[in-house]
Amino acid sequence: MVLALVASSVLFVALRMNKSDDLPAGVPPRPAPIAATPEINAVSATAPQPTASGVTRQIAAAARAPQLGEFTGQVSDSLTGAILWSKSPSTPRLPASNTKILTAAAALLGLPHDARLTTTVVVGTDGQVIVKGAGDPTLSAQSKRSQTFYTDPGRISDLADQVRRSGVPVTSVAVDTSAYTGPTMDSSWSRDDIKGGDIAPIEALMTDGARIDPLNEYSPRVDNPAITAGEQLAKALGVDVPVTNVTAPAGARTVATVRSAPLVTRVNDMLRYSDNVLAEALGVELSVARGGPATLAGGTSAVKQTLADNKFDVSNVTLRDTSGLSYRNLVPAALLDKLMAAASGPTGSDQPIDSKIRPMLDGLPVAGGTGTLADRFAVGENPGAGWVRAKTGTLTGVSSLTGIVQTVDGRVLSFALISGGTSPADARPALDNVAGKLRECGCR
């Protein structure tokens, strides 16, 4: 009875607390809650047009910073394509990961935007199943519904489920990497970069970009991506027999397939996280689509030729890879800026090239917010925070930044900035300062 009385008292107090006091006569009723309706507003086509002299005055001091070392670059008006500032823009420079701007643009120009890669499992002999790689490094060994590094990848777990449903009695797992040919590492790369997490042997079959820790962007990579992927499928199937590398017999029965995310998604993952492995795979994919070899060298040739076919000047471009890891790459700032101006300029039926490469803007890291710019452009310190979207590039003694910025007047500017000969720890803040000055630009 005591408990019942206490409970009744608590209920009475709760009801009284939830009951609003009567309002005096004449007091207006409480207004309805404010409803937020977020929307994306298009940049005004009539935003004030900056001038070359205005831009030069705005960034002059920042562009003279000694931390920039040997500095080249170009800034353009995305709406008109007019060059507003430049410094030795045609000089070939070591671009580091700004090379990926070329790779992204070429892939979007040369491949269907909805293109997907299909990894298959076929039946061999004596209970063996064979995983045939298709050049998709985003394939994931993460369990169902678990987080993955890449966006919407195919999964080993799905392959295993399909194999089990097929009823095939599996006694061993093998891998087929014949979709790629040639060396798996460029001679200008260091094998130390595998343990450093920058690259892996580029094989037609791998999972999670060959990361040992599949969710860690900077994880060391494995030396044998295809065998590792086969071992992951074997484990999922409960098979404890060494995985071998074979060539699947022609006409072998397919018992499982998974597909990658569409090309646009993979391009943007590559840009956002500056993923070298994915960049190299995209290069090979482009080469094959053009009828070229499924090799790393074929990828570099395909990127250059695709850009040339679309009227971009690649005469001063030297590519040893499509990721920017090689110190033998050379790209002028003018080309990087031209690609960015095209991506951010007017689109429509009369601008087919610009329309095709526009999607890569979505993959550019946001200053102070996402990807490789998440810890740069400190909010409250650099006015470019949240307004600059750009691809970073870093090697020892090399720093680069290519992207776009919306000025305070609502005008979109493209830019490409390349620094060399100084420490990235010093050069990157100096590059960010130049881009931040562009954000504050009225520049008329």
From TrEMBL:
The keyword Zinc-finger does not apply. Gene3D superfamilies: DD-peptidase/beta-lactamase superfamily (3.40.710.10). InterPro entries: Beta-lactam/transpept-like, Peptidase_S13. Pfam families: Peptidase_S13. One of its GO terms (molecular function) is carboxypeptidase activity. Keywords: Carboxypeptidase, Hydrolase, Protease. Belongs to the peptidase S13 family. NCBIfam families: PBP4 (TIGR00666). This is D-alanyl-D-alanine carboxypeptidase.
